[in-house]
Amino acid sequence: MASSESGIVYIGDFVHCISLTDLCILENHAVGVDGNGVIRLVELADKTLDGKIKSQGWETWNTVKAPEGRVAFWAPGFIDTHIHASQYPNTGIFGKTTLLTWLHKYTFPLESSLSSLPKARSVYTRCIASTLRHGTTTAAYYATVDVPATNLLATLAHAAGQRAFIGRCAMDSHLQPAYYRDASAAAALAATESCIQHIASLDPAHDLIAPILTPRFGPSCTTALLQGLGALARQRSLSVQTHISENEGELALRGPPGPAHGARARHPPLPRGDGADPEPRRGRGALSRQQRVSGLGHLSGARAVGPGHQCGPGHGRERRLQSQRLGGGAGGHGRESDADCAGV
């Protein structure tokens, strides 16, 4: 819808960060948003406001005011950089097991069951609704290895109007259970391409949803798969998300860092003979400014990733800030645990 037709004008106090250290508070302001979700107007809500709105070419508009009678303010939507949408039903389940055991006991069986599209629809619909309800307007999602189920997640997020990165989990190593892995690196790349094409059919310009390459984590992927995904990321300028150095169980699968790389992420290879990549990130073309990595709890050396390999955290400071409830925020939105679906 063009801005010349109509829009929504939000009125009240607005709070947002213009940098990591600067907080901006706009008291008694109006923010006009067009039908495409683009902010067209930020003005003081005074007697001249109507004229300023009409100057946008809007013939009509709806006005939404922050609730009165209590401390309330408008704030930007949250950005969650790491959500396992496929694990939504397992939120809160862990017990006394370790992470790697937990994957095999709880996570992989659940994720593989989402090849049933009615079940996937139920799980993904609930996950998207919950994140939106708690104020997450942008999400980076992990799905499963299943192409139709991953495509369904993309379709549902797009229909709900949530800005999202959709990642099909790529994993072809023999450490993955036989019932839940890609048959080969070539098969994984072909399946990933199918998801990329589906997302393009929904949103060719990637204005709202976009694909994100998702090698699950080092022990899940062979060298051939990581190289293929790295090449795809470079060719298409695609983002990448994964996990690295997340727990001691992973680190026990490998020895200390070799001299070739010096200080770096201590991430495990697979046992000999299974074809998995012993150096799952460096040298495979997987690291870039568009990568989001999670875990990062066990890094060796001050420059674990190394020079020239800049990437952003999927867990950490961004997430902790999001988890703090904005008490009094209009609508009471905040990041709460039932929308925080994180795991390997």
Helix percentage:
25-40%
Outline the biggest β-sheet: 8 strands, parallel
The number of helical segments is: 8
The rounded distance between the terminal residues' Cα atoms is 40 Å
The total count of strands amounts to 12
Specify the structural class: alpha/beta
Q: Could you state the order of secondary-structure elements as H and E?
A: EEEHEEHHEHEEHEHEHEEH
| % residues in beta strands | 15-25%
| Regions with little confidence, pLDDT below 50 for 5+ residues | 255-290, 302-313, 315-344
Look at the structure and give the mean pLDDT. 77
CA radius of gyration is 22 Å
Q: Shape from CA axes?
A: elongated
Write a brief structural summary.
By secondary structure, the chain is α/β, with parallel strands linked by helices.
Sum up the structure in keywords.
344 residues; alpha/beta; 8-stranded parallel beta sheet
Characterize the structure shown.
Helix content is 28%, strand content 22%. The strands form 2 sheets. Strands 5, 6, 7, 8, 9, 10, 11 and 12 form an 8-stranded parallel beta sheet that branches. 37% of the residues are buried. It is an alpha/beta fold and 344 residues long. Strand 8, helix 5 and strand 9 form a beta-alpha-beta unit. Helix 3 runs parallel beside helix 4.
